[in-house]
Design brief:
Structural class: mainly alpha
Distance between the termini: 41 Å
Largest sheet: none
Strand content: under 5%
Shape: flat
Number of helices: 5
């Protein structure tokens, strides 16, 4: 499968020339570093579950969401969204 086909199937978000890959990677890493740490961990766990059955993936994803609801970061995220401001993540 080539890059264009992967893009068409939704497997990749962006295609960059090989000589710009490092720059694009650094930009992406910077973007990821600003995510809520608990949410980023939950996403990682959910993605890891994709190796299993679809049902297992859904179960893991739901478990991760349920685990996040009582956290301070969840409350901060909702408050920041309502107040239309950038959230201040603490990983709690």
């Amino acid at each position: 499968m080539d890059a264009e086909e992967a893009m068409r199937l939704g497997l990749v978000d962006v295609i960059v020339p090989a000589d710009q890959l490092e720059i694009a990677g650094v930009k992406y890493a910077d973007k990821v570093s600003r995510l809520a740490p608990l949410s980023a961990k939950a996403i990682k766990e959910s993605m890891r579950a994709l190796r299993e059955t679809f049902r297992t993936s859904l179960d893991v994803g739901m478990h991760e969401i349920i685990e996040l609801i009582p956290t301070e970061d969840f409350k901060e995220g909702m408050t920041a969204f309502v107040q239309k401001r950038r959230a201040r993540w603490r990983g709690e």
